[in-house]
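seq:
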Amino acid sequence: MDAYEEFVSRNRCGCFTQSKNWSNIKQGWIAERITARDINNNIVGAMQIFVKKIPMLNTAFLYSPRGAVCDYHCKEAVEAIFKEADAISQKYNAFLLKIDPQIDENDLTAIGNIKDCDFVFSDYNSEDNTVQCRSNYILPINNKSENDIFNAFHKKYRYNIRLAERKGVECKICDTSALSDFYALMLKTANRDGFNTRSKKYFERIMKELGEQCRLYMCYYQDIPLSGAVAINYGGRVSYLYGASSDEHRCFMPNYLMQWNMIKWAIETNCHTYDFMGVPHYDDEQHPNYGVYRFKKGFGGNVVTYAGEFNKIYSPAKSKLISNLLKLTAKTYL
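struct:
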């Protein structure tokens, strides 16, 4: 493990989207990685920046998903890493750099330090207008036993997990040979819930490039695929990245068993967090996405809402001109 990867993977605000392997998954983007060091040559900040060139205008859009990685309460570290980012912007004649770091929406010190580096804060934008979901459902598991965590689930969830097992649902850790089953479920889920999905090759790249950091979980009943999920284990956190399910045998509760198995992976690998990922509009019971939050909250975690997006505009004229294109490129990123 090199110095960049070691720093990112050990930092509490590090994320798999800032890892080197993630850059191998993102086709059509150029990946640049930078570090900032203190006077003792210790790394105090790291950042992976994805570059989307716009040749017709001789410019580029820069995006650092969940970057930068640093102590946002240390003004010197924040200034140092974004000074390095400015050099990348000059290299590509970029018109804008977008970041969405894992800092709490109430962390005014961190927000202030970023704004002092000439970033425009998007003022707590709704998930409808951000690349990443601002609100994630988080289950802290540090220093907790498997029994402690299981017993903290809602009693109905404990019952559903046991029910799935009694009914003969099997949750398996699968290799790429099961991707056809998973992808078929993904298409059904997308059609049912009204969202676009990635190609099968995209999921193949995730599993290939992340290796042991990625797992495909599949739940079967008598060899019938009922549900599936892609989870990533990075930096002390297991993240539930993609999930899909069938309309068949839903009464056998496969999704509950699948989540429990992914949580156990986090426990077994001494992670501090299991991240259920996005719960958009969790505070609006009338919103179509509220069911996502309702399902996740029974596992006993809590909502963490990040501040959102910050934009550093290097060319206001080009930024305005390309604003519509920017939405297209950004929204298809993760």
